[in-house]
Write a structure and sequence with these properties.
alpha/beta, FAD/NAD(P)-binding domain
C-alpha cells in the first residue's frame, strides 16, 4: 500500500519504520524543517524497549538504565517509598531506559530509505475518496495515499477527519522541564526520584552522559501567561525544599533551557479510524505525562498498526485489529495519567503503602497496558 504518515515524532517514525519493513510504500511528512530535538528526555519502559527490539532499533547504550524509583518528601527529604522497577525488566526481558528524546528520534530515523522523510510540510486537512485519501499541505501541495496515518500529536489536524472535533481538554496541570548537566548523585545512578510537596512535584532521572532529566509539575491554568522568569518562579516555589537533588537542580536551572508543557487529556473511546484515515499516539489518546507512558504507548500503537495490517492482509480488518489490540491499554493508561495521581500530595498514604505492594503493581501495570508483552 501507499501510506502517508503525518508527523515525524516517536509514533510517526516508528510506524514508518515498521510499515516499510513490511513492504509498504511509505512517506512521512513533518511540519518542522528537520527532525525535532525538543522535549527534554523520556522514559522507555519494558513495553517500549520491546517494540524497539522488534523494530531493530538499538537501545543498550541509549541514555541511562533505571532500576529504582524513589519518592521523597520535599520538606525534609525523607524517603517515603522505593519502587523496584527492575523486577518488571527481569520479568519481561526488556530494560527501562531514560534517554534524551532527540536520541530516540535519531535512532528511529536512522536507516530509513532516502526520500522517506519530507520536512517543512504542514498538513492542513485530508479528504477521502472511496479508493484513496488526499492530504493537503499549507504550501498548497497535496499527496494521495491508500492510507493516511495521523501521528501529529495532541493538536492533531488529521484527528478532525476522524472525530470532527478536538476531544481533548485541559487537565489543570503543567510541567516545566529541562535536560542539563547537573552533577548530582542521581545523575550518575540507576535511580530516579519523585519529590512531592504541597507546592507540587519534582521528578529527576539520569539520562546518560552526565545529563539529568528534571521536571516540575504544579496546578496551572493552560491559558495562563508564563511568568517573566520561569527559573525564578521555580526557585521561589520549591527553593525551600530540603531534598538535596532539588536544590542542586534549581541552582543549575536558567530560563534558556526550560520547556513548558501544558497537560491535556481526553476520554479514550472507540473509533480510531474512519475510512482510510487512522490515528496513533497523542492524536488517538492524548494524556498527561504523569505515568511516563506517552512515548511507550505511541511505540505500541505503531507496532500494533503494522501487525494488524500484516496479519489480516486487509485494510479495514487491519485497522479494526489495531484498535481492538490497543484500546484497553491506552484507556487504562489515560485514566491513571489523567487523574494526575503521581502529582498529588499524599505523603501519609505514600509512606504507609508497602514498597513490595507498589513494586508488584508496577510490574503488573507494565504488562496490563501493553499489547506486545502479551503476544
Amino acid at each position: 500500500m501507499r501510506i502517508a504518515v503525518i508527523g515525524a515524532g516517536i509514533g510517526g517514525l516508528a510506524a514508518t519504520r515498521a510499515l516499510i519493513a513490511d513492504g509498504h510504500e511509505v512517506a512521512c511528512y513533518e511540519h518542522a524543517e528537520a527532525l525535532r530535538t525538543t522535549g527534554s528526555a523520556i522514559t522507555i519502559w519494558s513495553n517500549g524497549t520491546a517494540v524497539l527490539h522488534a523494530l531493530g532499533v538499538s537501545y543498550a547504550d541509549m541514555g541511562a538504565p533505571i532500576d529504582v524509583l524513589g519518592t521523597l518528601r520535599g520538606t525534609d527529604g525523607r524517603t517515603l517509598m522505593d519502587i523496584d522497577v527492575s523486577r518488571a525488566a527481569v520479568r519481561y526481558g526488556f530494560p527501562h531506559r531514560s534517554t534524551p528524546r532527540r536520541e530516540l528520534i535519531r535512532r528511529l530515523a536512522d536507516g530509513l530509505p532516502p526520500g522517506t522523510l519530507h520536512f517543512g510540510r504542514r498538513a492542513v486537512g485530508v479528504e477521502q475518496a472511496p479508493d484513496s485519501a488526499e492530504v493537503r499541505f499549507a504550501d498548497g501541495s497535496a499527496t494521495t495515499a491508500d492510507l493516511v496515518i495521523g501521528a501529529d500529536g495532541q493538536r492533531s489536524v488529521i484527528r478532525l477527519a476522524v472525530h470532527g472535533t478536538d476531544p481533548t481538554r485541559s487537565a489543570g496541570w503543567a510541567t516545566w522541564q529541562g535536560l542539563t548537566p547537573v552533577d548530582t548523585e542521581t545523575t550518575h545512578s540507576r535511580r530516579g526520584l519523585m519529590v512531592i510537596g504541597k507546592e507540587g512535584m519534582c521528578g529527576l532521572l539520569p539520562a546518560g552522559n552526565g545529563l539529568l532529566q528534571w521536571w516540575f509539575d504544579r496546578r496551572w491554568d493552560a491559558d495562563a501567561p508564563q511568568p517573566p522568569s520561569v527559573a525564578a518562579m521555580l526557585k521561589e516555589r520549591y527553593g525551600h525544599w530540603a531534598a538535596r537533588p532539588v536544590v542542586e537542580t534549581l541552582a543549575a536551572a536558567d530560563d534558556s533551557h526550560i520547556e513548558f508543557f501544558a497537560h491535556r487529556r481526553q476520554k479514550v473511546t472507540r473509533g480510531w479510524s474512519r475510512g482510510r484515515v487512522v490515528l496513533l499516539g497523542d492524536a488517538a489518546h492524548t494524556m498527561p505525562p504523569t505515568v511516563a507512558q506517552g512515548a511507550n504507548q505511541a511505540l505500541e500503537d505503531a507496532y500494533a498498526l503494522a501487525r494488524g495490517l500484516r496479519r489480516t492482509g486487509d485494510l479495514q480488518a487491519g485497522l479494526l485489529d489495531y484498535e481492538r489490540s490497543r484500546l484497553k491499554g491506552a484507556r487504562m493508561t489515560q485514566r491513571i495519567a489523567g487523574s494526575e495521581m503521581t502529582d498529588k500530595y499524599t505523603p501519609l498514604a505514600t509512606r504507609l503503602t508497602p514498597d513490595a505492594l507498589v513494586t508488584g503493581f508496577h510490574t503488573w501495570w507494565i504488562r496490563a497496558v501493553s499489547s506486545i508483552l502479551n503476544e
